[in-house]
Amino acid sequence: MTATEHSVESLDRKLNEAILSGKALEAFDEYYADDVTMQENNGEPFAGKAVNREREVKFFSTVAQLHEIKLLASAVNGNVSFGEWLYDITFKDGNRYSLEQVAVRRWKNGKVAAERFYYKG
């Protein structure tokens, strides 16, 4: 791969494309560091790829139908990328939600080292 293919902008675009195409777990396996930390709003961060993958699997197991997912805007500044996301989801409990969130990713050595989600909770 060339340096351009390893750029944060390129990596972030590929990760976003995978999420949009319904391959979020596969993208997690490929693009996230073993020691990744993930944080919801001001909650305590969860550390480690295994812990965070388990959380992702648990979340997806609650989804009955994903009606729509949109990346409304994205930007990269150095080793940080930002994405504004809109999800329209029906959960297995029958509740349908339109969720808006901003995801901030901090990249290191070609992998997401930290990700934080900001949303109205």
Describe the structure.
There is one protein chain. The protein is an alpha+beta fold. It has a single domain (8-119), classed as Roll (Nuclear Transport Factor 2, Chain: A). Helix content is 28%, strand content 50%. It has 3 helices and 6 strands. A 6-stranded mixed β-sheet has the order 2-1-6-5-4-3. A hairpin with a 5-residue loop joins strand 1 (32-40) and strand 2 (46-47). It is globular, with a radius of gyration of 14 Å. The termini are far apart. The mean pLDDT is 94.
Enter the CATH topology name: Nuclear Transport Factor 2, Chain: A
Radius of gyration over all CA atoms, rounded: 14 Å
Q: Looking at the chains present, what oligomeric state does this protein adopt?
A: single chain
Task: Write down the overall geometry.
Answer: globular
Q: Helix coverage percent of residues?
A: 25-40%
Briefly, what is this?
Helix content is 28%, strand content 50%. It has 121 residues and is α+β, with helices and mostly antiparallel strands. Strand 4 and strand 5 form a beta hairpin.
